[in-house]
Structures are given as structure tokens and as C-alpha cells.
């Protein structure tokens, strides 16, 4: 199974995520962690906090529509696994983010930029688990 790595699109996406993280910290003093934003939306009583979290999540959901408006095409999305694997993987990532005290955006982007030892450890754990998963599914069980 080959992957379609797109260096320019990946670089642009990384730059936009970094810019979003910097702007959220500079303007609101908040860490851009998608899991924390979603969890906080569900439990916050503060109307301003809920509005900020809802706006961030809405932007994440509506971004493909912006790509359609700008380019005339929907973003290419290829998921080479069955829907059950996608749902199972999403649930496992959600559980792991809960146990790890954050997700890849919070730890990997924001925490590492602040040289947080906790985030560096979490990011290394994410990467090791990802490498092991790819190795097992592609080479040992032939997924």
C-alpha cells in the first residue's frame, strides 16, 4: 500500500495549524488542543468560553467548504481502511487523549513548542504507537 505524501500541501497545513495555535495563544491565552476544546465545550458554563470553543470547532468542520469556494474542488480524501477500522481508531484515539491528558494538537504542536516535558513524552508515545500500529497492520497482519 502506497501513501500519497504531498509536501507542499502538508507544509501549508502545518503552517496554518501553527498560525492558528499562535493566534489563539496571543489573542485568548489558550492552548489549541482540539480534544480539550471539544471537552470544554461540553462542560463549560461560561457563555464567552462556549462561544470561542464553538467557533473553533465550527471552523474545523467548515474548512473543507472554504477549500471548495477557493479552488472549486472538494479536498481530496482517501481513507484506505474500512469504516469500522476508522471508527475504532477514532474511539481509541479519543480514549488515549483522555488518558494522556491531551491530543496531538495540544501536546504535539503547542506543548512541544513550550518545551513541556510532559508534552514531549506524550508526543513520543503517540509516535511510537503510530509506528508500531503501521508495522503490525502492514507487515505482520497484512492490512
From TrEMBL:
Record family assignment: Belongs to the TsuA/YedE (TC 9.B.102) family.
GO CC term, one of those recorded: plasma membrane
Gene source species: Paracoccus halophilus
Membrane topology: Multi-pass membrane protein
Pfam entry (one): Sulf_transp
Subcellular location, record wording: Cell inner membrane
Keywords: Cell inner membrane, Cell membrane, Membrane, Transmembrane, Transmembrane helix, Transport
The protein's name in its UniProt record: Membrane protein
This protein's record includes keyword Ubl conjugation: no
TM regions (residue ranges): 12-42, 54-72, 84-110, 122-141
Amino acid at each position: 500500500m502506497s501513501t500519497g505524501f504531498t509536501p507542499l500541501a502538508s507544509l501549508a497545513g502545518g503552517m496554518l495549524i501553527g498560525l492558528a495555535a499562535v493566534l489563539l495563544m496571543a489573542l485568548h491565552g489558550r492552548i489549541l488542543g482540539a480534544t480539550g476544546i471539544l471537552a470544554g465545550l461540553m462542560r463549560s458554563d461560561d457563555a464567552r468560553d462556549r462561544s470561542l470553543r464553538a467557533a473553533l470547532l465550527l471552523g474545523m468542520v467548515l474548512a473543507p467548504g472554504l477549500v471548495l469556494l477557493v479552488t472549486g474542488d472538494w479536498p481530496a480524501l482517501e481513507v484506505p481502511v474500512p469504516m469500522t477500522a476508522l471508527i475504532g481508531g477514532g474511539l481509541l484515539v479519543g480514549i488515549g487523549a483522555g488518558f494522556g491528558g491531551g491530543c496531538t494538537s495540544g501536546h504535539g504542536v503547542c506543548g512541544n513548542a513550550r518545551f513541556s516535558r510532559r508534552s514531549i513524552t506524550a508526543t513520543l508515545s503517540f509516535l511510537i504507537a503510530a509506528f508500531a500500529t503501521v508495522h503490525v497492520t502492514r507487515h505482520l497482519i497484512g492490512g
